[in-house]
Specification:
275 residues; mainly alpha; Leucine-rich Repeat Variant; 2 domains; 15 helices
């Protein structure tokens, strides 16, 4: 830990890589996570990720450690408070074309949300945990959703990316403030992803569940057909190949092109993020 903490310049990259590799292996074990929670591991890892954020190999290792620590209630809380969410979103923004960075960042975000949700009743993180994680203020939520959509669209053929994005979006539906942005920016890209992954059960299930959670029947764009008569959620989803009663090999989707992405402003780190 001390060795990694002393890695501050590019010439230290080899040492940092070895140290992060060791921490990544150690953090896979629950007992080791209990021990690490008593150290300065959170600040050290975030500082290393920030220092070497333009070195994809080191960044992947740092995000891997963050992901492993995220499942620990104390480390997860410490990561959120130290600005790990903002850091992961910045990594997504700066490395959207790097599949490994995108995948690991999405998994880490989803694990942080899950840990925060399970700890919420103990006062560790306020509910809804997903919104607490993805937006320090309501005005940031739209940019974060657009960023996640853009990352998914960049790797729409990857099953894990689509599944993890859908799981994150599904957790966001717990808060009413998230519904509008999700309906505007996430529905069409997720329908396209579902069409591509209809034979990949984990991704298809996550995407289908997300679309079922959204109030498509309340939106005129999705709920009315040529006869302008309202349809139920099942009928709406069936029309896009989402309804569970439609066999996988018979699913079709009259998709339009994805919503054009809006340039995402730089997401500033929180005050707790190491400088």
């Amino acid at each position: 830990m001390d060795t990694l903490g002393r890695c501050r310049v590019n010439d230290d990259r080899k040492v940092a890589k070895l140290a992060l590799g060791a921490l990544m292996n150690l953090s896979t074990n629950e007992a080791n996570r209990d021990t690490l929670a008593k150290t300065e591991v959170v600040g050290t890892i975030l500082l290393a990720a920030q220092t070497f954020m333009h070195n994809e190999h080191i960044l992947e290792l740092a995000i891997g450690v963050i992901s492993h620590l995220s499942v620990h209630h104390l480390c997860g809380r410490g990561l959120v408070e130290a600005g790990a969410v903002e850091a992961l979103l910045n990594f997504l923004q700066d490395h959207k074309e790097d599949l490994q960075v995108v995948t690991k960042s999405l998994v880490a975000l989803r694990r942080l949300e899950k840990t925060a949700s399970s700890a919420g009743d103990q006062g560790a993180v306020s509910h809804p945990a997903a919104v607490r994680l993805l937006a320090a203020v309501t005005s940031s939520l739209l940019a974060h959703i657009q960023l996640l959509v853009e990352a998914m669209e960049a790797h729409v053929y990857d099953e894990t990316v689509c599944k993890e994005t859908a799981l994150l979006f599904a957790s966001l539906t717990k808060s009413q403030v998230s519904i509008g942005p999700l309906m505007t920016f996430a529905v069409v890209p997720c329908m396209k992803a579902l069409e591509l992954h209809q034979n990949d059960a984990p991704a298809a299930d996550a995407l289908g569940n997300l679309l079922a959670l959204l109030p498509l029947e309340d939106d005129e764009q999705w709920s009315k057909g040529p006869d302008a008569s309202p349809k139920t959620t099942s009928e709406v989803l069936q029309g896009f190949g989402v309804a569970t009663q439609v066999p996988l090999n018979q699913r079709t989707s009259p998709l339009t092109s994805p919503v054009d992405g809006v340039r995402i402003p730089r997401i500033p780190p929180s005050s707790g993020y190491p400088s």
